[in-house]
Amino acid sequence: MEIIMQPWPWYVAGPAIVLVMFLLIYSGKEFGVSANLRVMCSAIGGGKTCEFFDFKWQDQVWNLVFAAGTVIGGFIGANYLSSSTEVEINENVRQELVDFGIADAGESYLPGEIFTWEALGTAQGWIILVLGGFLVGFGARYAGGCTSGHAISGLSNLQLPSLVAVIGFFIGGLIMTYFILPVILTM
């Protein structure tokens, strides 16, 4: 008997997120994954050389545990609760990616043409992984939080700056998807 795994439907996943957010708000905590880098830097002594990392990081250990749970949960979900590693994407999108040189589009979560050590040695790979990673980190710091922090926690708290940040994230994502990424992939 073959067990077919399906993603959780919205009416299960949505209320689960709401419950987690309610518990965080009730306990006076704010959710955000990018804050974990600051906590880790502070925990290893970053506060001795930089004022930004000089704070009581022990109050944020719960967020590190949450991030670790996210990684572990993703691993379990991908390796033990999924019927395959193939990613379900629209056939038109798959063909567009193939046209851009991503031959294994949809076959795995991380296309080998981009996310390998060999790809890092190319201009295209360097731009996507190194420069892109730097810009995401800089943007999260400049915006005062990451997409998860603003879109889930900030909007749950009805914070106007989070609404502005989320709108900016979406505009940036659309510009990247339709204008910048095609140029990078055809280099």
> Average pLDDT across residues?
85
- The shape is globular
Share of residues in strands: under 5%
- Output the radius of gyration: 19 Å
Unreliable parts: none
Main structural class: mainly alpha
Instruction: Write down the domain tally.
Output: 2
Indicate the percent of residues in helices. 55-70%
Largest sheet: none
Give the count of helical stretches.
Answer: 8
Quaternary class:
single chain
How many angstroms separate the termini? 48 Å
Order of helices and strands: HHHHHHHH
Find the count of extended strands (DSSP E, 2+ residues).
0
Describe, in plain words, how this protein is organized in 3D:
It is a single chain. With 187 residues, the protein is mostly helical. The chain has 2 domains: 1-83, no CATH class; 114-187. It is built from 8 helices and no strands. It has helices at 10-26, 35-43, 61-80, 91-99, 117-120, 123-142, 147-156, 160-185. Helix 2 crosses helix 3 (61-80) and helix 7 (147-156) runs antiparallel to helix 8.
Give me some keywords for this one:
187 residues, mainly alpha, 2 domains
